Amino acid sequence: MVKLKRINKYISDSGLCSRREADKLIEAGRVTFNGEKVEIGSKVGVDDKVHVDGKLIETEREKVYLAFNKPIGITCTTDLKDEDNIIDYINYNERIFPIGRLDKMSEGLIFLTNDGDIVNKILRAGNLHEKEYVVKIDQRITDDFISKMGSGVKILGKTTLPCKVERKNNGNFRITLTQGINRQIRRMCEVLGARVLKLKRVRIMKVKLEGIKCGEWRYLTKDEMAEIMEAVDKSSGTEEASEIVE
Which fold has domain 65-233? Predict the structure, then answer.
């Protein structure tokens, strides 16, 4: 979905002049974009180069926040050499990057943005932002399994934080994490003798996956962003970033 802006608004947003004055500049042939003279009413995208009297006009890029339902098989990397990378899959009209990761064989909710500031705040391990998953394993889920998963499992030399775990049925459970150890859920299940068959992230903080079809995305709403901003506003700025992964 390419977001275009009328060129007079683009120039006005730069602070150079009003829209009406921008139209006068266009009529006088003093405005070009991508090397060509433009007409009143022309529209430009975020990556177009607009010049007035030969001088590049710079405007602050609008910040975008996407909620994407990642399919299995897509990798959460900005490395375009990876043919399954998330950036080419979404094909957004400007540079964005994922906030955290879901591994290739996992699916579900992930945020993408062009706002580097919020990325670090959301990813900080100490912020205790919740991520909820639905998991299917290769065996019957017992009360003992639920209890051990919830109280903490030793992986990679550390014990995971206590978390909320509830059984959905004999082979599926929900788990809500507040930390981001690499492949955390899969490693926890392995320690307890189970293998993950399917893993889907269904919520990050208060944003839910509901309503987003697999492989599709939507913009985060103003209300969702207000809640996220309020949550990260309390974030400590001294902790190292971790990855939002399962």
Answer: Pseudouridine synthase (3.30.2350)
Per domain, the residue ranges of the chain are 5-56, 65-233
Angle separating helix axes 116-123 and 222-233, nearest 10 degrees: 60
Question: Which amino acids are annotated catalytic?
Answer: 103
Q: 5-56 and 65-233: same fold?
A: no
Q: pTM higher than 0.85 for the full model?
A: no
**Residue 245: how many other CB atoms lie within 10 Å:** 22
Interior CA angle at 221 toward 217 and 224, to 5°? 110
Residues 178, 161: contact at Cβ < 8 Å? yes
* pLDDT, tens only, 15-68: 677 788 889 999 999 999 888 888 898 888 777 889 999 898 876 667 899 999
Instruction: Name the CATH superfamily housing domain 5-56.
Output: RNA-binding S4 domain (3.10.290.10)
